[in-house]
Design goal:
The complex is a heterodimer of chains A (324) and B (431). By secondary structure, chain A is mainly alpha-helical. Chain A has 15 helices and 2 strands. The longest helix of chain A is centred in the N-terminal third of the chain and has 32 residues. Chain A is globular and about 75 Å long. Chain B has 2 domains: 177 residues, Periplasmic binding protein-like II (D-Maltodextrin-Binding Protein, domain 2), CATH 3.40.190.10; 195 residues, D-Maltodextrin-Binding Protein, domain 2, CATH 3.40.190. Chain B is built from 17 helices and 13 strands. In chain B, the strands form 3 sheets. In chain B, strands 1, 2, 3, 6, 11, 12 and 13 form a 7-stranded mixed beta sheet that branches. In chain B, strands 8-9-7-10 form a 4-stranded mixed beta sheet. In chain B, helix 16 packs antiparallel against helix 17. Classes of the chains: A mainly alpha (324), B alpha/beta (431).
Chain lengths: 324, 431
Amino acid sequence: MVETVSITPAEKTAGVPAVRKKRKWTADHWLAAAFLAPSVVLIFLFVYGFIGWTGYVSLSNWNSLVPDWSFAGLKNYLYLFHDFRFQADLRNTLVFTVLFIAAVIVLGQLLAILLDQKLRGESLFRNIFFFPMALSFVVTGVVWQWLFNPSTGVNLFLKPLDLDSKWYTDTTILGGFHWGKIEFGIPVAIIAVVVAAVWQMTGFAVAMYLAGLRAIPDEVREAARMDGATEFQLYWKIILPLLRPITVSVIIIMAHISLKIFDLIYAMTGPGANFVTDVPGVYMFETTFRGNYYANGAAIAIVMLLSVAIFIVPYLISSRKGGS
Amino acid sequence: MRKKASAWLALALGIGMALSGCSSSNSSSDNAKQGSQKAGEKLEIFSWWTGAGEEDGLKALIKLFQEKYPDIEVENAAVAGGAGTNAKAVLASRMQGNDPPSTFQVHGGAELNEGWVAAGKMEPLNDLYEKEGWMDKFPKALIDMVSKDGNIYSVPVNIHRGNVLWYNKKIFADNGLQPPKTFDEFFQVADKLKAKGITPLALGDKEPWVATHLFENVLLGTLGTENYKKLWTGEVSFNDPQVKQAVETFKKMLNYINEDHSSRNWQDAAQLVAEGKAAMYVMGDWVKGYFVNDLKLKVNQDFGYVPVPNTEGKFMVITDTFGLPKGVKNPDDVKKFLAVLGSVEGQDAFNPLKGSIPARIDADPSKYDEYGKQTMQDFKTAELAPSLAHGSAAPEGFVTKVNQAVNIFVTQKDVKTFIDTLASAATELKK
């Protein structure tokens, strides 16, 4: 995944560094710049420009249909962090992200290793695991909403066995203790959502790990076996550590999906009773476009941006260093 | 070099096309502006009427309009989503961006007055009311709901009643029960049903407004119309003992609901009553359209209706209205449409299909079913109360906060926290 293209060697062979300083822009450079300019301008305007705009709104008093640009300081942020619903959102996002990423990594590695055993019909299995990726989260949400519906769905099979559950309507918080205004712990309802998300995204991790496994030369395995390593030791001590860079990539990709998740929750459960399945994305949408609290909504968006940045920025920095 | 030249050419062409694209779209919108002097500008009708019944009603209304004004092109810009939640989001973006639809659906009351009128986005329609002679054709209390500071801002097309208790006739007959008229009777009936293993009250609060809808009815039944209305002006505080009593009643009711309430929307909850899995359901009378059109049930055979306990002689009004936003290019066409919308003919074309009753008091009762006739009668005599859950009583921002508080209360059942939250949210209400 780490792709930093270094042009230094080519330049070195091309000529003396002194020439490079004086070098004039040729038509080629102008052409390249001209082709890049529109997308650079658009990205700066529509991505970074509007991030700045959102940040500005989040510091204003615009909490009704009439824009009010007066400076509010951190009022909107303070309101959020004292708000029951937002505290519940933070808890849910944290629990969802941890469970989701852990499950995707474990299942992804397991399935990829099983697929790597040169079994017959491998491509068939690969496709079966990968196809859920082709669906949108909205479709996944609707399907699993019915599967986990407490009065229909899988409960029809589980009820005779006395194993039926309330799934995403369960309001229990596991291991709960008081924190701020909420009960902190693992909301049982969020587990149903995690299952749906894992079902959809595991195929992606399988594909990445499979590519990683294929990139490990056979010599490594043979050498380990020559040295008398068991199959378990081979995987646990050699193969899995070699897959670590893939795991980092999987974590980055899954974290930014799960921290920003909206469509799956919106289609599957909504905010849930007592906000057990609410996430910042849903709250942002409802408070901004239904309640007309634009500044509060912008503050939620900025908090979401920062939470993703916590994962992305170190990754970008480390990949730059790794490249040079 | 030739390659480079062709690349430059491609770039130049690309830029040229982009520019000409802009200019051509400019000229076409110029044309449209000129055309609107005649009949070129489309009349865009924005609503959230996409469900069975309501969509037919809207189409009948548009058909009537086009028979009268064949030159005006109409665009039905409906956005799907229960109770207009998605449509309102789209509308807010368009109004903020100064791209209003020609006319749009808005609930009479705070949603109109404290929302779009207060934001200075609506044109007054007093002249239209004068011209069409409507001042005595709509009930005064209703005109007040669409007026602010002496100006009238929209035309009501229909009336829905919010305080209706729907019940399964067969369950009540089998158990020898009478529909309850007071909260005490409600709990007696509910206890008997619960003892027999029947869910007494259906609720589907996957979208939290459904629970708020139940709560506002309990508030109306406990406080009475006068004090209920004063809640929204701040004259009666949420710390009032009567509010506490209402919250306690609401809390007690929650002991009688179906367990999977948070996985159901309002239609799914209505199904429980239709299928005989639950006995009673508090919901606005759009549920009648759902029973009759979608589930093919018969009024007064399969299901019956009474006012919500303690609210007889009271009428929780939900009225859909259409107004004229500022900055539309064809205000005269919009007024022609509003004139049709407010006419007896227009209201009688729309309402029987939608399952609502006309907002005018001189419409033709023979066009309506049994339920409609009785409701039209009640509408003339009952005390009108604005609905909170549907945006008539208080601004959207307050409603959003109440919905959140109710959503928490339904699970936690913590009376004190609930009332504190309501009281602190109410500081936003204008006096």
